[in-house]
Design a protein that fits this description.
This protein is mainly alpha-helical. It has 15 helices and 5 strands. It has 3 domains: 208 residues, no CATH class; 38 residues, no CATH class; 146 residues, Alpha-Beta Plaits.
């Protein structure tokens, strides 16, 4: 059959994708079958490793418990606090880490030799406890403690030690758990522990070697199969991605981000991307122009009332300052100098505010000569900076230039930390502005100074 020459003919990306998916599934199935045996080997190795780790940890628990008891009895003989005695017997009689470690090791396969070494360490630890009991008996006698465990009460002191003074008993008790004989016994425990751990490591090594010898014969064949299969899968995935998936997914993400589409992929997709980007450019220019005009004051460039309302709907009240500015005697400027001069004063004020406040603060014109500045992400520590900015505003506006008279502003300032909504925030700032006007204008007032119990932290 002759090849079709109709527009849009040829193999579709969807058909190619379906074929490649089916092929990938078949290859993946072969890989699963060929690697099943490998997985079983790995499972056995993992189980053996887990068992050896648990046995080694159990063996170390005995030494940790012995060291813990040593620490508590030594601190008891030196400091005499009953909490050390209580901690000692919580470990020795309740937690029983040494006994549990020994029991766990006894259940291991082929661990008889390691168990015997650990049992010797346990016996040495128990023998050492008799010396520790004797030292603790000296301390309770010296301190006059009561309520100690019965096992301490059963310890009989020698006549010589009974005759010692309280201070001498403390010294004698400390010597018993700090002298060379004590640490020789501790050393014996450590030696048996090391021998036990060494035996466990030897067993683990032998098991690993046996498992790896069995595994090695299978892995050579499996490795070749896996490499071939992986190369096939990689080729199919790369081709699918190259043909269309990556360009399409990237384009979708860019559209979600409201951004132009990169011109990449097949020629057909590049054509679509160029066409989309042209339409996108026209669309963005139109939207930005409309949005700016809708939310900004045409005269001053500040946010208008609609922009102000939109900004308020998204602010975090708990971290926002609202500053309400009012130009003092602005009506007189319009009456005496004309509305054109008044407009220039408004433009100068917005320019001054924009230059002195941060780039992420918002300057809004909400009335004829009434302006609001929203300072987001601002805590009470900004008060001094706000005061300085307002003083700079008045200083700048007070300089006559280009036919404009000297003017001043009055300001009311409130913080949203303790307000319920934006309406209350504005009312607080407006009340502060009214107070500034009452004081004689050309000044500023913080709402918290009018109502210290409501205004927030200093």
């Amino acid at each position: 059959m002759a090849e079709s020459k109709k527009p849009g003919g040829g193999v579709s990306l969807r058909t190619v994708n379906v074929i490649l998916i089916i092929a990938a599934v078949l290859i993946a199935g072969l890989m699963v079958l060929s690697t099943f045996q490998i997985s079983s080997y790995f499972s056995r190795l993992t189980e053996q490793s887990k068992q050896q780790t648990e046995l080694s940890n159990a063996a170390r628990e005995l030494m940790d418990a012995s060291d813990y008891l040593t620490e508590k009895v030594q601190r008891f003989t030196v400091q005499g606090g009953m909490e050390f005695l209580e901690s000692y017997f919580d470990e020795a009689l309740k937690n029983n880490r040494r006994e549990l470690a020994l029991e766990q090791l006894s259940r291991g396969n082929g661990t008889e030799e390691a168990f015997l070494k650990l049992k010797e360490a346990m016996d040495a630890s128990l023998e050492l406890m008799n010396r520790e009991y004797y030292a603790m008996r000296l301390v309770v006698e010296a301190k006059g403690y009561t309520g100690y465990p019965d096992v301490i009460g059963e310890v009989k002191l020698s006549e010589e030690d009974k005759a010692l003074s309280a201070e001498a008993k403390m010294v004698r008790a400390s010597e018993l758990v700090h002298d060379d004989k004590y640490y020789e016994q501790k050393g014996l425990i450590r030696d048996r522990m090391k021998e036990s751990l060494g035996e466990l490591e030897r067993l683990a090594h032998n098991e690993d070697v046996n498992a790896m010898n069995s595994f090695r014969a299978e892995i050579v064949i499996f490795r070749i199969v896996i490499i071939v299969q992986m190369l096939g899968i990689f080729a199919m995935v790369f081709m699918t991605s190259r043909l269309g998936i990556h360009p399409v997914l990237n384009a979708v993400n860019k559209i979600k981000e409201d951004s132009p589409i990169p011109e990449m992929g097949a020629n057909e997709f590049r054509y679509l991307a160029r066409t989309y980007n042209k339409m996108y450019g026209v669309y963005r220019n139109s939207i930005e122009h409309l949005n700016f005009k809708a939310s900004h004051d045409e005269l001053t460039g500040a946010y208008n009332r609609a922009g102000y309302d939109l900004l308020l709907s998204g602010v975090d009240l708990k971290s926002t300052f609202m500053l309400v500015f009012d130009i003092d005697d602005f009506k007189n400027i319009n009456d005496t100098c004309g509305h054109e001069t008044g407009d220039r004063v408004l433009v100068k004020l917005v320019h001054t505010l924009s230059s002195l406040f941060r780039s992420d603060d918002y300057v809004c014109r909400i009335g004829g000569d009434e302006f609001v500045v929203l300072m987001s992400h601002s805590a009470w520590g900004q008060c001094d900076r706000i005061s300085s900015i307002i003083e700079n505003v008045n200083e700048t506006m007070g300089v006559p230039e280009n036919g404009m008279p000297s003017v001043s502003v009055s300001v009311g300032i409130a913080h949203g930390e303790n307000v319920a909504d934006t309406r209350e925030l504005f009312e607080n700032a407006d009340e502060a502005l009214y107070h500034s006007k009452e004081k004689g204008k050309h000044t500023y007032t913080f709402y918290r100074d009018l109502h210290p119990q409501e205004g927030g932290q200093n």
